[in-house]
Amino acid sequence: MSDTKTTAKPALTRGAEIKLCGVTKRYSGQKIAAVDNVNLTIPAGEIVVFVGPSGCGKTTTMRMINRLIEPTSGEILIGGEDVRKKDANELRRHIGYVIQAGGLFPHMTVAENIAIVPRMLGWDKDKAAERVREMLNLVGLEPGQFADRYPRQLSGGQQQRVGVARALAADPPVMLMDEPFGAVDPITRAHLQDELLSLQDELSKTIVFVTHDFDEAVKLGDRIAILAEGSKIVQYDEPAAILANPADDFVRGFIGEGGAMKLLNVTRVADIELDELVTARATDSAADVRERIGDRDVPWAIVLDDADRPVRWISKDTLADMDGAIGNAGDKVTATISGRANVQEALEALLKTDFTSVPVTVRRKYVGMVSLSTVQNAIAGLREKSKARSRS
Ligand SMILES: Nc1ncnc2c1ncn2[C@@H]1O[C@H](COP(=O)(O)OP(=O)(O)OP(=O)(O)O)[C@@H](O)[C@H]1O
Questions:
Q1: Distance, CA 71 to ligand 1 centroid (Å)?
Q2: What does the pLDDT look like over 245-270, one tens digit per residue?
Q3: What is the pTM assigned to this prediction?
Q4: How far is the CA of 61 from the centre of ligand 1 (A)?
Q5: Which domains does the chain have, with CATH numbers?
Q6: Residue 70 CA to ligand 1 centre (angstroms)
Q7: Residue 321 and residue 262: Cα distance in Å, rounded?
């Protein structure tokens, strides 16, 4: 059939909300519940990361979502539907599941591994094969090179990519990822994390991700749930809010050293309050720009070109000696920083230049200046914001 040859967009089903209501799991013979009355809403299309000490119940909580473990009591809803009202096997076909080292079947090729769920869903061979190709491309593996290999013929990182491809193959709205990158070296791990984030930009699945590594949680999570024994939720918030205002010493222990630095890593320059500087055009008269600078603390203007890109700096002193338009007077702007960069990167840019502030651009257009005091104010502001939120 020719329609199987069309290169349809790989995954189209967006994430669904997951709701845990009073969920408890008591294993037989256990005195204390492994998961004790957990209430949690995981918003559609977000990555929520469970972090907590070994044995606190992260995996048990996650596996109750796809009913690999049955709750003792409570309710789990996906997209508003009670998971217990569905056939467990059918449910699992619509929830991607990735475990450490990919969890691939060793006796099946890469293609066969990826096609398992589509075939179970009754897709014909051609459609499943097309899907395998799409998924391999999506996770950055050349289908011609990898489809017929066996898992043992792949590196750890490649196995992990195939694990992600397999979980996404049936286009599920929800993905559960249980320490998926725990078994690979730190460099491959960082690559896999970056790939997951760019995939998620495209796919907007609801992803529940378990890790021991708080830095991984900060990098990947739209929100982080910090869990203590019995899956007790000690704090559930965006990474920046947790870093700025940890709920207690237990959370502080997880954050570890350098919380303020980590906060800089998760805060985008475009999201902080930038300094304003007088802006000018080459055609503006020097006298006019001088007047606009007036008695401002920073006696400089920044000159923008026709496309609003910052091109030159000019000081009030230089302007004082000039008549007519400013033209090409002043010093060239040698460093700018993208609004998409994080504040840590902005600090590095500041350290590298001779100036006390650096222009910030969004899609190359000038939006403001970042300086050491902007960064300090931003950190203070984030702290205040999250304190106010936790009080409300
Ligand atoms: N099948 C089981 N039978 C009895 N107890 C179990 C079973 N599986 C897990 N447990 C217990 O339940 C608690 C929670 O286990 P779980 O695996 O969910 O924790 P975790 O936070 O994922 O741990 P880790 O980070 O070490 O993987 C632990 O005390 C564990 O020993």
A1: 14
A2: 899 999 998 888 777 778 888 888 88
A3: 0.77
A4: 10
A5: 18-257 (3.40.50.300), 279-378 (3.10.580.10)
A6: 14
A7: 46
